[in-house]
Amino acid sequence: MKQALSAFILLFLGLNLQSSAQLNKSELIAASEAELRNSLLEFREYLSIPNNGKVPADIKLNLDWTKAALEKRGFKTKILTSNAVPHLFAQGKIDPKKKTILVYMQVDGQPVDASAWNQESPYIPELMEEINGSWEPINWNFVDGKIDSEWKIFARSASDSKGPTMTFLSALDILQKKRIDPSVNLKFILDFQEEFSSPELAKVVAKNKTLFEADGILIMDGTRHFSNLPNLAFGARGIATITLKIFGAKDDLHSGQYGNFAPNPVFSASRLLAAMKDETGKVLIPGFYDGVEFTEDDLKAMAAVPESMQEILAELGIADAEKVGNSYQEAMQFPSLNVRGMHAAWVGKEVRTIIPSEVLIEIDMRTVKETPAERQVELVRQFISDQGYHFVGKEPTDEERNKYSKLISLDYRIGSEPFRAEMESDFGRWLEKGMRIVFGENYIKTRLTGGSQPMAPFINILGIPAVSVRIPNPDNSIHAPNENIRVGNYLEGIQTCLGILSQSFN
């Protein structure tokens, strides 16, 4: 009996000792490589689920899959619903002696045009290798052998952001197999409408403040810097969108009968848009950049990011960059104005000789903390008014058509707010410890990323910092046809998460 009790005590102590252990670099690398095959196959299954956040059936399928995936790994889950939109919360066991981290994961992806993809379907993931400059599919059975880090997986949300999610789950699997507890308490929030600016997330956070209490937010979303170096990003720009419609005649008109007589609103649209930016790319709307200033530390942090202007231009296939900021990093710190789409009449096989009756212009603006979206929208509105335009509702009345020569409608929507976390903080230093154990000093920190992430509700309501771990390769074609993730980046993602989760956060 005494021998059995002693054996039990030794086993118990051994388990306890192992649960507090940390992986060294060689153990971490070996464990991630050993787990890669299983991880990729589960990733393939996850990618096979359509995930348009506007389709309730897609949301339900992904909700069920992620809920089961987290519960399988020992987390308790709870569905938080606002205005019929579900959000998935999960929580592990809470040790009061440990810090608590809230992990944000995006589940939905951009809508797809399957005909534009070089594969059967964006939801049938393809494993591909590059042969003579083109990407060719290879059999998924190849993952049973040596896995090439240069292979890529093509599917919607491979990079944005099911890939980052899956790397984190795989890191948890490794820790579980080694009976090592994460160094922090973990909570999760899964977002099923990020691509639509997470319209209900703020309400969910405000209603469940106690549930979300944490010491920091780890964002599993976002593309790496052009260098493809492992990357921590300490902020993101916000976004606002504007829809403009410029009106011409009541109906489309024959260009032969009415050319030289009826004004074409396309030319009006061209003049208006051209007035918004100069030839160097700087926005000419008065006050657009007001408030944006950099400290010496800010400039040093941006200068520390290794990037070659020539390499970036060559990668993008352009001769010159716009002159907003003195580098790519600086450019990302300013608000931006972009025409994301235009429509007037028909083109291609459907082209016809008409003067279109209206032009639709879609604009997106990225914002920073110093340039709130409401202000930027109002600046655009005032600028358009100063150009002599009269604002109408959805359609101008006959009276307005007879009175005003420049007619326009404006509709707008404000999405995610901008945020920035301190680059020198306990939370930031903990994340850097995790990066260093894997990559040494061969990683970068960026002050602000150009894209948008819905962190403002957590930061404003809970008062905690948020930092994103960047995993996908910069040439990943997110939001576009043929979205992909490089297998080497995916593996480094698992290693990054393992490194972070095995470092003590004091």
Structure, explained:
The protein is of the alpha+beta class and 506 residues long. It has 2 domains: 2-237 and 418-501, Aminopeptidase; 238-292 and 334-414, Alpha-Beta Plaits. It has 15 helices and 21 strands. A hairpin with a 2-residue loop joins strand 4 (126-131) and strand 5. Helix 5 (201-207) runs parallel beside helix 14. The protein starts with a helix and ends in a 5-residue tail after the last helix. Mean pLDDT is 93; it is low at 5-18.
**How many helices?**
15
The outline comes out as globular
Assign the CATH superfamily of the largest domain.
Answer: Zn peptidases
Q: What portion of residues is helical?
A: 25-40%
What's the story with the biggest beta sheet?
Answer: 8 strands, mixed
Major sheet: order of its strands? 1-2-7-3-8-20-9-19
Radius of gyration: 26 Å
Beta-strand content estimate? 15-25%
**Number of separate domains:** 2
Key traits:
506 residues; alpha+beta; Aminopeptidase; Alpha-Beta Plaits; 8-stranded mixed β-sheet; 5-stranded mixed β-sheet
Topology:
Elements lengths: L1 H18 L5 H23 L8 H17 L3 E7 L2 E7 L8 E7 L19 E6 L2 E5 L13 E3 L7 H16 L7 E7 L9 H7 L8 E5 L10 E3 L1 E2 L1 E10 L5 E2 H4 L6 H12 L19 H8 L5 H8 L11 H4 L4 E8 L10 E2 L2 E10 L5 H14 L3 E2 L6 H6 L3 E8 L4 E2 L5 H14 L4 E3 L9 H7 L3 E5 L13 E3 H15 L5
Parallel strand pairs: 3-7, 3-8, 8-20, 9-19, 16-17
Antiparallel strand pairs: 1-2, 2-7, 4-5, 4-6, 6-21, 9-20, 10-18, 11-15, 11-17, 12-14, 13-15
Helix pairs in contact: 2-4, 2-15, 4-15, 5-14, 13-15
Quick rundown:
The protein has 506 residues and is an alpha+beta fold. The chain folds into two domains: 2-237 and 418-501, Zn peptidases (Aminopeptidase, 3-Layer(aba) Sandwich), CATH 3.40.630.10; 238-292 and 334-414, Alpha-Beta Plaits, CATH 3.30.70. It has helices spanning 2-19, 25-47, 56-72, 162-177, 201-207, 255-258, 265-276, 296-303, 309-316, 328-331, 373-386, 398-403, 426-439, 456-462, 487-501; strands at 76-82, 85-91, 100-106, 126-131, 134-138, 152-154, 185-191, 216-220, 231-233, 235-236, 238-247, 253-254, 336-343, 354-355, 358-367, 390-391, 407-414, 419-420, 444-446, 466-470, 484-486.
